[in-house]
Design goal:
This protein is an all-alpha fold. It contains 4 helices and no strands. It has a single domain, classed as DnaJ domain (Helix Hairpins, Orthogonal Bundle). Helix 3 crosses helix 4. The longest helix is centred in the C-terminal third of the chain and has 34 residues. The radius of gyration is 19 Å and the shape is elongated. The two termini are 23 Å apart.
Length: 99
């Protein structure tokens, strides 16, 4: 299955789509940080959730780091999708008996 940009990324962590602006990112972070901060949320996974949330916020709130992140994600997804295409072609040829 081919991957798209919104699959398991910083935007998803913040509950936003990739068209979200800086203000949306800040608001989402504040709301989610209040819910999962380890000082307020005593679940064992709260610290890990908070760190993942903070990383997403730090990357997306800065326009330069957001652009670099989106560029890296695009390249990663393109490379993964190319590999999927190669395997699909190979398996198709194998099934047809052409290999």
């Amino acid at each position: 299955m081919k991957e798209t940009l919104l699959a398991n990324d910083h935007y998803q962590t913040l509950g936003l789509d990739c068209s979200a602006g800086t203000d949306d990112i800040r608001i989402a972070y504040r709301i989610l940080a209040a819910r999962c901060h380890p000082d307020r949320n005593h679940k064992p996974e709260a610290r890990e959730e908070f760190l993942r949330l903070r990383e997403a916020y730090e990357v997306l709130v800065d326009p330069d780091s957001r652009e670099a992140y989106l560029n890296r994600e695009q390249v990663r997804i393109q490379e993964k999708n190319i590999a999927i295409d190669v395997w699909e072609s190979y398996l198709g040829q194998l099934i047809k008996g052409n290999l």
